[in-house]
Amino acid sequence: MSKITTELLLERAVPRSTRLRKIETLNLSKLQLKTGDLDPRLFSRLRHLQKLDLSDNLLDKFPNSLTLPDLRVLNCNNNQLEDVTALKQFPLLEELTYENNVYLTLNDDYKVMFLLENLRLLNGKDITKLANHVRHVNSRKLTSKVTAHWEKFFRDQLPEKYTAEQVKSIRKKFLKSVQTNVVYGPSSLSEFTRWRVKMIAEEFLSYSLGLELNSDTEPEEKAEENEEESTESPREAAEDVAQVGDFFSYINSILSVTVTPSKRKRNHSKSGAGNKRSKSQADTEEEAEDVSAEPLHFLQCHSKGNSREDFKTQLWSCVFEPVLDSGARKDPIVSSSRTVATCGGESVCLIDCETGTVLKKYKVATEEFFSVAWTTLTMVISDSRKKAHNILAAAGRRGIVKLIHVAADFCYGEIKAHKKPIATVCFSPTQETHLFTASYDKRIALWDIGIPDCDYNFKASQLLVLEAASIPLRIALVPTCPEQYLLAGCEGGCFAWDIKLDKGEKSRPFEAIFQFPDDESMTTSHRVDGLAFLNDDVVVSKSSKPGCIYLWSWSRSFDAKGKGCQRTVSAVILAELEWSTTDMSYLTLSTCPAKGYVFCGDEKGSVWMYNLSSYTTAWGSPKGKRSERRISPAQILQWPELRVNGEQPPEILVNNVVSDPAFTYLVVLTSVNITAIWKKS
Q: For residue 172, what pLDDT is reported?
């Protein structure tokens, strides 16, 4: 491995030189250089260096004191850089390239645009206009928000005379709060935004805690400015995002619609005995009155051939991106992402729920995607260090699983999992490389997808095959024992398997099949097209019985099986949820365990929301009784009057509806190629 010496620098100068101080252009590419090879004492003698090529090396960062006061052009392509903030030591830098550094993201682009005021070209593109927006408009709006947050929540907490301990306490609380609550721009820039917010907040505290805050006019003006910002229309927000898109080629196929707002009603107008509710149930509904949601965006981003006339592509699956808990984006104060992956037709999209921006789009012309799932892999990078990255798995009609490293915009591999279509996929919550695939071949397979190396080489292996009696439609791992039991809703019933890997047999039959009420008897023969856990024990399932969603106890049902060979067990029903009387299949449900909510769409474009937080404690007791009456929804979100080119779309079925873990956003996938995003108000 080459080490940098005075002789090497003189030899690699362009043209070759006899004095270090005379070198203006230097080529140090393809030398296998690591960060430790860049000796600041040696580089400090390159006083007139203007162009430096460090491409095709092994650099993971820059030393903080290279002292190149006249550097104008820097090439760092094909390295392993993880951070760009040290580049601020080159204030005269005008041209910068760092392509093919897989660990750098859009957030790093924005950081260098802010830090380097003279930067004109980034990775070969003119960023003058965008950089001006980042340094001035973005900073002004964030400063306004930070100031308003202090005035509203923290100013009164600081006494006129304060101690150092009080300042330290307020500072800690304010920095945590402001990074959590000040949001601006698309979620793909959330790391940059938090970085700038922290910087602005620290500058603000340095000023405000060092001097008396006597000005009353400025805070009012800032608060007013912040109020205007908070009422920004989606169209105005999209204009801000468009400036980002001009440079970074965002895909933003937003459906042009007119929404006629109407008062949202809790629709409990169905007739029948099921509508009579006890006082406790009525009280529960009144408590839920404050929980409502309003439509935010309607997107048509899965169109075949990007056609705006496509209202036939079915959308099937969506899942929110997990927040990385390690690496460059580590931030324990962030609870959940606002980026969601959706799939349908030939494409998979990543959408920022707040702005409605389609951040990324992946297409496979011969595929129809049915399911997506996230995992976070800890990958080994240079010098044996580890870093977490989110990986997206997508699968569908071809029976192939695509593995996508989203931050790198790279589909690095595929697994030919089944010869028939894959209905759904999910990752183990405890084993990040374990992926379950449920197929129309009536099998559920468990795969170890492996961890890709720095060249994206990986090895996938099949660990287990679960034999089903019919096509599996939905799968769920039991929260209390995700490495031991898996549930599946199938065309012919609800089944459970033992998935422990310490057993010898690789192919296994089901362990149990669950019976459910059917008029006056119990039956196992019914389609279960909705399945999810509400908490560690309560299962929510939807079957072909019209107008009913069951809640039942996993532990009490499965324990009744005993140690014998009995495989048919009766589900211990805890409650029934009132739902649409349609016999339409494949309108699946989801849960938000943290908030105790169940969501399910219907055949009219509506979303039924059930707040079950007040019931779960009683159900959790060993002798918890079944709720006698059907539980009505806390609210039904009705499909708004939506017109495309003056006409309403055809019949709208809600195939899937999913909330983020904090229940801030609700993503609704339809049968007419429209993704609707609602926000809790």
A: 87
> What's the pLDDT score for residue 627?
75
CB 347 within 8 A of CB 404: no
Domain with 154 in it: 130-209
How crowded is the C-beta side of 656, counted as CA atoms within 13 Å?
A: 25
Mark whether 73 and 199 lie in a shared domain: no
Distance CA 419, CA 449 (A): 18
Task: Give Dmax over CA atoms of the chain in angstroms.
Answer: 97
At 544 the pLDDT is 65
Residues 85 and 202 in one domain: no
| Residue 629: half-sphere exposure toward Cβ, Cα within 13 Å | 14
DSSP string over 299-364: E----GGG-TT-----EEEEEEPPPPSSSTT--TT----SEEEEEETTEEEEEETTTTEEEEEEE-
- State the pLDDT at residue 383: 63
E strands, 67-156, in order: 73-75, 95-97, 121-122, 125-126
Taking alpha carbons only, the member of 456, 385, 454, 460 closest to residue 417 is: 460
Any idea what the CATH number is for the domain that residue 100 is in?
A: 3.80.10.10
> What is residue 553's predicted lDDT score, i.e. its pLDDT?
93
Same-domain check for residues 360 and 435: yes
| Total residue count of the chain as it appears in this document | 681
CA 153 to chain centre: 29
Task: Give DSSP secondary structure letters for 501-541.
Answer: TTSS-SEE--SEEEEEEETTEEES-S-EEEEEESSSSEEEE
Q: What is the number of domains present in the chain?
A: 3
CA distances from residue 455 to 100, 402, 408, 413, 649 in whole angstroms, order as listed: 12, 17, 12, 11, 46
Q: What is the mean pLDDT of each run of 10 residues along the chain (681 residues)?
A: 80 88 92 90 89 94 86 94 91 93 89 93 92 87 89 81 80 89 84 91 72 31 30 29 28 37 34 35 40 85 86 95 60 62 96 90 92 92 77 96 90 94 96 97 97 87 95 96 96 94 88 84 80 96 82 90 73 93 90 95 94 86 74 92 72 94 94 94 76
Domain closes at, from 179, 209, 239: 209
Is residue 518 in some structural domain?
Answer: yes
Q: Quick one: 673 and 525 in the same domain?
A: yes
Q: For residue 191, what is the enclosing H or E element?
A: helix 190-208
DSSP states along 417-464 = --SS-EEEEEE-SS-TTEEEEEETTSEEEEEE-----TT-----EEEE
Residue 618 has a pLDDT of: 82
Whether residue 440 sits in one domain with residue 556: yes
Which of 185, 209, 233 terminates a domain? The answer is 209
